[in-house]
Amino acid sequence: MPITLTVNGTEHTLDLEPDMPLLWVLREALGLTGTKYGCGISACGACTVHLNGRAVHSCTLPLSAAGGQRVTTIEGLAPNGALHKVQEAWIGHQVPQCGYCQSGVIMAVAGLLAQNPHPTDGEIDAELSNVCRCGTFVRMRAAIHDAAAAGDGVAS
Amino acid sequence: MNRWTRRAFIGAGTVAGGGFLLGVAGFTFAPGRHTLVSADAASRGQLTTWITISPDNIVTILIPHCEMGQGSQTALAMMTADELDADWPLVRVQEAPALDAYANGYIVRAAGGQYVPAVLGRGVDYGAYKVAEWFGFQVTGGSTAVRGTGEYGMRVAGAAAKEMLIAAAAAQWGVSAAECTAKHSRVAHAISGRSVTFGELAKAAASQRVPTSPALKHPDSFTIRGTTRPRLDLPSKVDGSAKYAIDFTTPGMLYAAIEIAPVHGGKLVAVDTGPADAMPGVKRIVKLEEAVAVVADSFWRARRALAALKPEFTDAGHGDVSTESIFAAFDQALGAPPDMPADAAKVVTAEYRAPFVAHATMEPMVCTAKIEGDRAEVWTGVQDPLNARSIAAKALGFDVANVRLTNFMLGGGFGRRLPYTYDYVDLAVRVAQAVSPAPVKTIWTRENDIQHDYYRGAALSRHAGALDGSGVPLAAHSTYTGGGNGEAVFMPYAIGEMKAHEKTAEHPIRLGQWRSVLNSQHGFFKESFVDEMAHAAGKDPFEFRRGLLGDRPRFKAALEKAAAMSGWDTALPSGEGRGIAICESFGTIAAEVVHLAVSPEGLLRVMNVYAAVDCGDVVNMDSAAAQVEGSIIFALSAALLSEITIANGRVVQKNFRDYPMIHIADAPNVVTAFIRSDAPLGGLGEPCVPPLAPALANAIYAASGVRVRELPINKTPLRRA
User: Does B230 sit within 8 Å of A37, measured CB to CB?
Assistant: First the structure.
């Protein structure tokens, strides 16, 4: 039974197993490789995307759960080649090192700011559980506050 | 797509348009290296192996090092562009292809540059290049890119190209080259008011004689080095467009999931493929000597089918090996603590323990391979493309010339992707061979990655120190297992008698290099022990160290700087503490102060880390600071949480749930200061790792009275004494 979902504004109908994780649907079926595999057990956040504007871990989210829903990936965070304010802040603070986890972190932060436009440090600590092996947390925090200061959180 | 060829050096007249021989100070070295140009070099204005200037004035610099987040591709481009006097916004970088001519010959020089007489130095470069070529190294590791390749290679290339551009302009205008200057990617003749872009000159410049001794800039005239330039790889890393090995795709590509013998060295005994044969998307089940792989039309399907199999493996005779058995052997090998002088007023002894740890790069190991007849094409992410290519060739029984390897940005390296750690390439090419000619991407799961790493070695170290009646240290001796070297055990202090003896106790756990190599274990051991000696002497740990660094001005300055940054002399509330440590590694001295709090319940909160770093000079200021911050967080995560344990010969941990990492909530504020000394350039990717664990343990002692002698720190209860 084909499943229909909207990814970055485009509707896709896919004839895949309903329990295939959204991560692999995005990466392999739709070629959206900005979303990364890190652990497969929802423990690192590298696979974070938005489901109807809320940050979710796509590595454990079955395709069936995304059926009829609106999915946004890093490629669709800002339309038409523009940068989302979180991406701008990430460049401004030169956050990424290897960069592999950063799509997921940026999606998690964009999701956080959409819900809570001006998070405190404590709220950032409570909400953001992404793993970054390069250890870019110091810059992440500064960039989150900058992005928050740049305007109201915009849900994607 | 340009094709890379080695152009024979026949004579100056016959290589019009490209193919130049670069020399250094009259000594021509590694000719192949500088005569390697693409077949269409003339039309592309390729000046040297490393620099291409196109008519639109874009300078493309080939970098013979991978980018794994350390920022050295940008730093190397800055060093080249500064000597070239290129306009930075017009500079692009490209990673050098995996070809012999890009083997890196500067590593020996980087490691020992300051000890090599200037005249012999060039010979060392040549010798190292030959060694690197023979062994097929194109490695990024040992914190060598900037201080080796950059300082001794890329600068020279940039300076030579500039002289060629100036010579071309001078010839065009019929003026003396001495009257021409280069700036912002233009050559100008001030007297006549003429100027021309590098792009317009490139073709003519390419037929200029390559200078044998291009003049290098005095540091005072650097315009790009020593500033902050945004990293060139970052735009692609915020919009998802950066391509890692896991992102590569090619038409008809299949996917493989693999299960490897859980005990290293084990062999596949049997596997009933029945349960997976008919599962959706499954194309082939591949039995290898030490693994079984499922090839399918999607990775998830491959993985699901693999999970249905119950392969049996041998334990290679190591089924009785455990963390306990390894440490028992260490203990036996070490014997009694080292003897101390008979006239000591006070003897201090301590034993420290460091666990096995995994690299756990965010991108797990991935390799795609396509085998057709006697040729192979490989796409992967490695710190040494040439070594990876040779390992692929060996696994296939192919001539290395028949293997083409494309390297991608690395989703973390930290030493996991160094030479001779390419089991993931070895396995992937054999899987692909079984389904030839279909291309197959073998993706390691996180479980594969954690369980089949080349781990940082576990180690045990036994120390004894002697103090005289006034607290002056007379001796500090140690015996250790788990490996060591002169740099790792070196202590800069003026202590009468310092000795470190290595004892060996073999075990079958596979080891590799983990960011900062042996310095991370020994930094913890030696700088914890110095702290214990300071307390035994009744002295402040900073003042105790400082008093022993009288004849080591660089160490003393770094130590003082870190202490001053931390406000070492100011009082802290009860339950808070500061700890200090200093280590030299890879030519860089790093002093760190950790400021933390331990609650009465024993909960630890690391608040601030202050780092004073003397790596000689700094190339890209902000990116360098990012390396310090990242090293500190990386080291903190390991010191607090990381331990790989062994049971029944196999690694127990599997994923981030049982091998956890710290999160943003656990990350302290990090304050970095660079001491820009006149010392030779030191490395920066690793040297700020070693001081962190001891500074942390020393701070815990200051805050709680609990002395942590075992890593990770979460094994020691921290209830305040």
Answer: no
For the record, the structure tokens of B657 come out as: 């749930």
Integer distance in angstroms from the first to the last C-alpha of chain B?
68
**In what side-by-side order are the strands of the sheet with B588-598?**
B576-585, B588-598, B604-614, B669-674
* Residue A49 β-bridge partners: A56
Dist. CA B125–CA B22, nearest whole Å? 14
Spacing of C-alpha B35 from chain mean position:
28
Strands B291-296 and B403-407: unpaired
Burial class of residue B413, CB neighbours in 10 A (0-12, 13-18, 19+): buried
Residue-wise pLDDT for A56-66, tens only, equals 999 999 999 99
pTM (2 d.p.): 0.92
Q: Give the DSSP per-residue string, A14-30.
A: E-S-TTSBHHHIIIIIS
Which two structure tokens, joined as six digits, stand for B32? 């192949």
Q: Residue B432: phi, psi to the nearest 5?
A: -65, -35
CA angle at B713 for the pair B603 and B693, rounded to the nearest 5°: 115
Query: Across the interface, do B298 and A24 touch by the CB < 8 Å criterion?
Result: yes
User: Which CATH number applies to B517-715: 2.60.300.12, 3.30.365.10, 3.40.50.720, 3.40.190.10?
Assistant: 3.30.365.10
How far is the C-alpha of B357 from the C-alpha of B638, rounded, in Å? 8
At B422 the pLDDT is: 95
User: How many contacts, defined by CB atoms under 8 Å, are there between A and B?
Assistant: 180
DSSP code at position B147: I
C-beta atoms of A136 and B629 within 8 A = yes
Cα–Cα distance between A85 and A97 in angstroms, integer?
19
Q: Evaluate whether residue A154 is within a structural domain.
A: no
Q: Which pLDDT score, from 0 to 100, does residue B104 have?
A: 55
Judged by CB atoms closer than 8 Å, whether chains meet at B655 and A43 is answered as yes
Mean pLDDT by 10 residues, chain B (721 residues): 28 25 25 39 52 86 81 90 96 78 51 39 42 51 69 82 93 97 97 95 82 85 95 96 97 98 98 96 98 98 98 98 98 90 93 98 98 97 91 97 94 93 97 98 98 98 96 96 94 95 96 95 98 98 98 97 98 98 96 98 97 95 97 98 98 98 98 93 93 98 97 92 60
Give the Cβ contact number of residue A121 at 10 Å. 12
Fold of B4-238: Aldehyde Oxidoreductase; domain 4 (3.30.365)
A54-to-A71, A73, A147, B531, B560 alpha-carbon distances in Å: 9, 11, 18, 49, 48
Residues of B in contact with A73 (CB under 8 A): 240
A133–B412 CB contact, under 8 Å: yes
- Nearest one of B287, B290, B286, B289 to B261, comparing CA atoms: B290
Domain boundary among A19, A48, A75: A75
CATH architecture observed for domain B245-316+365-443: 2-Layer Sandwich (3.30)
Q: How far apart are CA B254 and CA B250, in angstroms?
A: 9
Mean pLDDT rounded to a whole number for chain B: 87
For B512-639, list the strands marked E by DSSP: 576-585, 588-598, 604-614
The residue of chain A with its CA nearest to that of B231 is A94
Does A20 share its domain with A63?
yes
Q: Among all residues of chain A, which has the CA nearest to that of B609? A: A138
Phi, psi for residue B567 in degrees, rounded to 5: 65, 45
Closest CA to B718 of B575, B526, B574, B536: B575
Amino acid letter, A152: D
